[in-house]
Amino acid sequence: QVHLVESGGGLVQAGGSLRLSCAASGRTASNLRMGWFRQAPGKEREFVAAISRNGGSTYYKASLKGRFTISRDNAERTTYLQMNSLKPEDTAVYYCAADSRLGVAQTASAYAYWGQGTQVTVSS
What 3-state DSSP class applies to 61? Predict the structure, then answer.
């Protein structure tokens, strides 16, 4: 019912920036809470940031707040993750997630739909 496609990943030097995009399509794609997660090699998937359906509420992994910013353009059905001052430890596959319920959520089980992921590699 909802299809998510991430883009914007790539290779960047430490200290650089990237902006990830997540485009949503499908019958209910216009009214979803969104989240970003990441998974580094050999590690479990972890929460990065989340935004409510109207964009009024956001939530971040504490250690990333100030460097990462989540936003959305509901007219374009696109959610963004602006990542600044990137570090090698930010290297991971970044996943976009969506769900029709209210509020913001930081657990993977709170999202029904997932994208395929986009690779972010930060070189030292």
Answer: coil
